[in-house]
Amino acid sequence: MTPHRFLAALPLAAVLLGAAAPVAAKPLWRAVNPIQKQRIVTLRGDLAEVRLEPTTRSIGEGEDKDEIAALHIAVTLPGQPVLELPPDEMRMDVHGLHVGIGKLSPRDAVPVVILEGYSGGMHCCATFQMVATVDGKARMLALPGIDGDLDDAFPKDIDGDGTADIVRADDSFLYAFASYAASWAVPAVYNLRGGALVDVSAEPRFARLYGTFAAQTRRYCAKSDEAGNSGACASYAAAMARQGKAEEGIAFAVAHVRQADWLPEPCTVALVDDACPEGKSRSFSGFEQALRWFLKEHGYIA
Description:
Strands 2-7-8-9-10 form a 5-stranded antiparallel sheet, with no helix packed on it. Strands 1, 11, 12 and 13 form a 4-stranded mixed sheet that branches. The protein has 2 domains: 1-22 and 155-302, no CATH class; 24-151. Mean pLDDT is 89; it is low at 7-24. By secondary structure, it is α+β, with helices and mostly antiparallel strands. It starts with a strand and ends in a 5-residue tail after the last helix. It has 7 helices and 13 strands.
């Protein structure tokens, strides 16, 4: 089973995204796998170019060193020299890429290039790189990998301000209050701003997005199933907080949670070998205390 995903499981959201006015004429979005085809693939759009050439790269060290199939990626933006992208250590290029070329706003003078890939493995990870013009030079920007599938279209404007919004997910909710299958990854929205990919999820203009997500998670929070409903209740509270209704959301979640499958146990000191030293994890008295800590820790409430 997979966790509940906003982008994949919410028909109303799909209508909302699909109804947004296009931010640029015919942005390119293409799924390609040059390694599978064993040939160079070149994509062109809006005066930009992406060249993907099958090659190999080394991973590991010493006796564990190995050569794996990889892609050499070169991006050319209008008026810029070729930018050769460093390897994404998480991405396994053998799975192929989704490549986008287009403008995030009709006001933009030049397009951006987006590359999404997949890490392979259980419950992971869709990777994200963007090449944009920053201070007059082509720069590579990246977002953390998230659980789930790659996008199937170029980013769209979801709030009506004329600028495309990059909708990802906050995977911190996975396993936080429930099993993977009973967890709900809350939407996270990014904009290209000031030469960086900035998390703008808390801005009021996305209230409709979070209202739609809250309506879905509320239904699951209000009922119990064999996996429990604590994951849905926690994510519902987060979605309400994004709309400026944190206390209302917390109160509903606390009133309806029937079985807290488990609670977060944050480490109070630095991890040692990726593990919390014995006796150094924090315990909570119950769901509400853990929820309030979690929402504050992850920026949903002050």
